[in-house]
Design brief:
- The protein is of the alpha/beta class.
- About 35% of the residues lie in helices and about 15% in strands.
- It is built from 9 helices and 8 strands.
- Strands 1, 2, 3, 4, 5, 6, 7 and 8 form an 8-stranded mixed β-sheet that branches.
- Helix 7 (about 190-205) links the parallel strand 7 (about 170-175) and strand 8 (about 215).
- It is globular, with a radius of gyration of 17 Å.
- The chain starts with a strand and ends with a helix.
- The mean pLDDT is about 90.
């Protein structure tokens, strides 16, 4: 059997920064994923890792890329924020803009709005599929890739283990969208209502796939970070890092078995 270690990362907005803390603990223990697959924020973390960035550089990317900024508002297109305007921020970190320029194989998911299907991207242009994977409706406008319109990959698959199953002997996952019971006061805007409903329906199908992984990381207290909380980056990282440190014996055992 091969020694490929696959890593699959879920979406989750700012909560996805917990993946970076998890990844830091993996690397500190000499666990180096060799193939990665992700959706939305998870796709971004996978891409940054595949491009060779360390975890501190990943945090810098998230801090330098504004989530909601007036100059990025969409005009005459669906969505509040214009996804096309994010390309310039991504070019700072992905100057070659191709999957082929990455150090290890990466797959990202995005939802094709025209035919209603999930598409996997693993070759050709990189930045637009990455932005498409993160384009959570209705916050971010759909983005055009190869003549099709795409939105958040998490709409159809928030835990894309499929590209790793055939080629990896071990698969580690990280999932940052626990369906915790929440208070009525937490559903106090249309966006929060939309996101809550979206994840309740979505996560049941994703959790079924956990049994196909050797280990799945799901950090406690990650619900303390808001999905669109731009000030929660360091907190999400800390939650991910500390939870992963507490789990390291289980993680090491899952890779060795």
């Amino acid at each position: 059997m091969n020694n490929e270690i696959g890593l699959v990362l879920s979406g989750g907005g700012v909560r996805g920064i917990a993946h970076v803390g998890f990844l830091q603990v993996l690397l500190e223990n000499n666990i180096k994923p060799t193939k990665v697959s992700g959706t939305s924020a998870g796709a971004l973390v996978c891409a940054l890792y595949a491009a060779g960035y360390n975890t501190q550089e990943m945090l810098s990317f998230f801090k330098e890329t504004p989530l909601l900024k007036l100059s990025l508002y969409a005009l005459n297109k669906p969505g509040i924020m214009d996804s096309e305007k994010y390309i310039e921020f991504f070019k700072r970190y992905f100057s070659e803009d191709t999957f082929e320029s990455l150090n290890i194989p990466l797959t990202v998911t995005a939802t094709n709005l025209l035919n209603g299907r999930l598409d996997y991207f693993s070759k050709g242009q990189l930045i637009k599929p990455l932005i498409a994977s993160c384009a959570l409706p209705p916050v971010f406008s759909p983005i055009e890739v190869n003549g099709n319109l795409y939105s958040d990959g998490g709409v159809l698959n928030n835990f894309p283990i499929e590209p790793l199953k055939e080629s990896c002997s071990k698969i580690l996952g990280s999932f940052v969208n626990p369906i915790e019971e929440i208070a009525k006061t937490e559903i106090n805007s249309s966006l929060k209502l939309m996101y809550r409903v979206y994840h309740i329906g979505l996560d049941a199908s994703n959790i079924k796939k956990f049994s196909e992984c050797n280990y799945v990381f799901s950090p406690k207290n990650i619900d303390e970070v808001g999905v669109l909380d731009a000030d929660g980056i360091d907190k999400a990282y800390k939650i991910g890092y500390e939870n992963a440190q507490n789990e390291i014996e289980r993680i090491l055992k899952s890779v060795k078995n």
